[in-house]
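Thread: Newbie trying to understand structure tokens

Hi all, I'm a second-year student working on a class project, and my supervisor (Dr. K.) asked me to get a predicted structure for one chain before our next meeting. I've only ever worked with sequences, so writing a 3D structure as a token string is new to me. If someone could post the tokens and maybe explain what I'm looking at, I'd be very grateful. Here's the chain:
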Amino acid sequence: MLSLVDAYAARYDLTYSQLGRELALEHAVIETYFAFWQYRTASSCTSSIPPNTATDQQLFDAMNAVVGIDSFSDQGLAPYAAYYYQAAAELGWPQPYEKHLGALIHFPDTDTGEVYSPPGIPFEFRPSAMPDIQDWVSSQGQRLMFIYGSYDPWTAAAYVLGNSQDSYLYTVAGGNHGARISQLPAAQQAEAKATLNRWMGIAPLKRAPRFVQSEEPPVFGPHVPPHLREASSQAVRQ
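---
Reply by user tm_fold:
Sure, no problem. This is what the structure looks like when written as tokens:
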């Protein structure tokens, strides 16, 4: 499988100096299940998961399509350096789901935020950072709106509204990390949009009447003499 990583890196000019290609591959394997539910849906299970008879190339392609081996390259990590630093210092990181793999794991307990944090920048993890924010949300928060997807693993750590004022939490049934207002049931969509309009102090937009194509398309010729306009209309009807 490492040869496939090397071939992919050569094709797309990727380097793995921060993690190393072995660690990058192992972390990609470990995170495939997480990324699948983060970005895919239950309906894609049959089309995205290869059979037991799949070749190494087929397995690599399936994993790469879900999690992206380039995400673990130097080029994939650099744009998210600030996020990875904050994850290591404050946000925390999902616990690796790897125990069931036993001896197949060569780098146990390494798929954590600090591994992805920019090298050479010191940090100290503050375990109280996120609980402090949750306390603020549930005790002092106001005009907050959260939208989660029921399949998204990150929803496991969803905020709790508690005693926050004029705040709302919606969950898109069957939704993933891309959950949007437009994916909510019609009644919740209307409520969420009305709330946002109220917060912004704007009136709901009035929709223009829907255009309905007539049986005979109009002839646009405001400066055409009437007899020519009639001839044009007859030509269209023919």
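A couple of things are worth pointing out once you decode it. The first strand starts at residue 145 and ends at 149. The chain has two domains: 2-116, 131-200. Feel free to ask follow-ups in this thread.
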